[in-house]
Description:
By secondary structure, the chain is α+β, with helices and mostly antiparallel strands. The protein has seven helices and 14 strands. It has helices at residues 3-24, 198-202, 218-221, 233-239, 266-278, 334-340, 358-369, and strands at residues 48-51, 54-57, 62-64, 76-82, 89-90, 104-114, 117-119, 130-132, 136-147, 150-158, 165-167, 172-179, 185-192, 243-244. Strands 3, 4, 6, 7, 9, 10, 11, 12 and 13 form a nine-stranded mixed sheet that branches. Strand 6 and strand 7 form a beta hairpin. The longest helix has 22 residues, at 3-24.
Amino acid sequence: MSDRASERRLxxxxxxxxxxxxxxxKRETKPSFHAEGFPERLSEWTVLHAHxxxxxxNDGVEPYDLAxxxxxxxxxxxxxxxxxxxxAAAYDPDATFDLPVGTILTKTFYYAVSGDGVAAxxxxxxxxxxxxxxxxRLLETRVxxxxxxxxxxxxxxxxxxxxxxxxxxxxxxxxxxxxxPDGRREEFSYFVPNALQCAACHATNAAxxxxxxxGIKARHLNKASSFAPGMNQLDHWRIAGLLSxxxxxxxxxPKNPSWTDGKADIDARARAYxxxxxxxxxxxxxxxxxxxxxxRPHVPMGPAVGRCKAAIAAGSGSGGRPYDxxxxxxxxxxLVWRMETEDPAAMMPEIGRAVTHEEGVALIQQWIAGLTGxxx
Length: 376
């Protein structure tokens, strides 16, 4: 038997053992919504609990994922939603779904362990409500909770024992060594945002500055479910009672492709990537509305998307390049420069990453290289 086959068999055995442990110790515990205050421990929300080498979802907690997610220094993510009993998210074809008071969203960030560091590796996620922790390192879990007066965002950092996460409202910097897919070693600091920095992404309207979820939109959720085999995720939500309103089937809902789907149109993939990573700020009402860029996928290709548009007050952020997008010339496009650079004064997004997403950059370079025309 080859070493690779032996490794696969061992990994399967670890996963099976972890799931058996989870099944034996399953707690019928529903999420605890906190209408006020700031719980010091993640376990106080009773959404997730770590035990016996497993991160387990409690009763009434639904995992979900996105067609094209936000890049976060190659971290893997487990997203969950829990709704008040008898209530559902109200469907909207374009905007964030209206989620009732009492909703709890969590996003847990973790890496596969590799040598003295962590690896940019294929995602491992929950199976039947449990994420086996063998070979993984949990870093943080972010909680978004819908209270009567709006959403709150709280970051929790996991302890070294991987048994509990505690509230870190001031954020944290965690030094790590990253091993890229090709094996290159890179030292960096993984930043946990402070509670105020969460608004930098989640306050998607510059006028109201109100925090709201980013990923709970039809176009992000409209994909094959990773957790209900054989079903579309939006259809699963409707059938499970998580989604209400004028919604009949995922077939009629907006849809972003996965940015990694080589069979999908390059334009759709690139626009989906920019949507997930940029449009929460770069929209007609977002915090970056003064930039003149609107990177939502329905915006027609033109100056609003960056084509032949000079940067507004970019300073050194332009990298000496003339326009946000120069058709056919990614090496002359500011958009590519700001994705490539790790200079805090110039990089985009401004927070949420410390290393360059080389594969994402390559996608945008390929897309721009295929655009025709000129800026004369």
